[in-house]
Design brief:
The structure is a single chain. With 317 residues, the chain is α/β, with parallel strands linked by helices. Helix content is 41%, strand content 17%. The protein has 2 domains: 209 residues, Periplasmic binding protein-like II (D-Maltodextrin-Binding Protein, domain 2, 3-Layer(aba) Sandwich); 92 residues, D-Maltodextrin-Binding Protein, domain 2. The chain is built from 14 helices and 10 strands. The strands form 2 sheets. It has a 5-stranded mixed sheet with strand order 2-1-3-10-4. It has a 5-stranded mixed sheet with strand order 7-6-8-5-9, with no helix packed on it. Helix 2 crosses helix 11 and helix 10 packs across helix 11. The protein is globular, with a radius of gyration of 20 Å.
């Protein structure tokens, strides 16, 4: 809370600037820091009135940002780099998730003990930037899998329709447990441990806004990161903020799953940087993503770090 009070004292009295934040998925604990920044008055103390808009299937948060439908958006680093390469002037202002949460999940009784043993097997993959790491992994291992389009459900794995399925550590992995699967029944391949650690959720804005109103950008990023720090200090309060939105949206989830997601998200956000280093982007991780995207023909040339990563002026004293 000390960071919050310092932030509040540092801000002069001013009219509330209206800001729209577009999330890249539905309301869940993955975005708890933004909710608590709103509910605890951190945005208000920073002179901001923030409209937090949920995403979901068929909603491209970064495309909405590029089209001027919001001021800020969350999204994955790989997807944002592709947009930047296509000429959309997106800039990364804060990198949240530092360790990739993407997994390939199989049952131990399938006797798949290594990635090479997926050769020729049916593997459930999500579309878009979610399949970049799996395809790079398969290419590096010299194998060819039968790619099966996967939706948001883990039913294909549970019903034995695929030998392995995609999942996020903070989400689908725990959904399997809630569906009655014990963790010791599963074998998990973590991309972060297989040489493909792609940082995921970040906060993006347009280059024009960053240039024309650095103060607004600085206040929003500082308040958002303060919301995340408060989330880690007061997880019960953060969970309450999450469930308020989950219930209002009538989403099929529960407090147990959201608490798991909240704990997992903290691990992923504080990985290597701790609570005080929130928002930093590792040049080494960025270079890795660049190299893989170019290798797969998804970028025409590497994205320049200096023009892409533009954290606004620090607003916390």
């Amino acid at each position: 809370m000390a960071a919050f009070f310092c932030l509040a004292l540092a801000m002069p009295a001013q009219a509330q600037d209206k800001v729209r934040l577009q999330l890249h998925w539905v309301h869940q604990a993955q975005f708890a820091g933004f909710y608590l920044a709103q509910d605890a008055g951190i945005y208000r103390e920073a002179g901001l009135e923030v409209d937090i808009v949920p995403g979901g299937p068929g909603i491209d948060s970064l495309q909405n940002l590029a089209q001027g439908k919001c001021h800020f958006a969350t999204g994955w680093l790989s997807g944002a780099m592709e947009y930047r390469d296509q000429g959309f002037p997106l800039v990364l202002m804060a990198q949240l998730i530092q360790r990739s949460a993407l997994l390939l999940i199989t049952f131990k009784d399938h006797d798949i003990d290594s990635i090479k043993e997926l050769d020729g097997q049916r593997v459930g993959l999500w579309g878009g930037h979610f399949n970049i790491q799996p395809r790079a992994l398969f290419k590096g291992a010299g194998i060819a899998v039968k790619e099966i389009p996967q939706n948001v459900s883990m039913a294909p794995l549970l019903e034995q329709a695929v030998s392995a399925a995609s999942g996020m550590y903070y989400n689908e992995y725990h959904q399997l447990y809630q569906a009655g699967v014990d963790y010791d029944e599963l074998r998990v391949f973590e991309f972060s441990k297989l040489g493909l650690n792609f940082p995921e959720d970040g906060i993006y804005g347009l280059e024009s806004l960053r240039r024309q109103n650095p103060d607004l950008c600085g206040r929003f990023i500082a308040a958002s990161l303060a919301g995340w720090r408060l989330t880690f200090e007061q997880p019960d309060r953060a969970l309450e903020a999450v469930m308020k939105r989950v219930d209002a949206a009538q989403l099929a989830s529960n407090a147990g799953h959201q608490r798991w997601m909240l704990n997992a998200t903290q691990e992923l956000i504080t990985h290597r940087v701790g609570r005080q280093g929130l928002g930093q982007l590792s040049p080494r991780d960025f270079s890795l993503v660049n190299r893989v995207l170019v290798d797969q023909g998804l970028l025409r040339k590497p994205v320049a770090l200096a023009s892409f990563y533009q954290p606004p002026p620090e607003k916390r004293p």
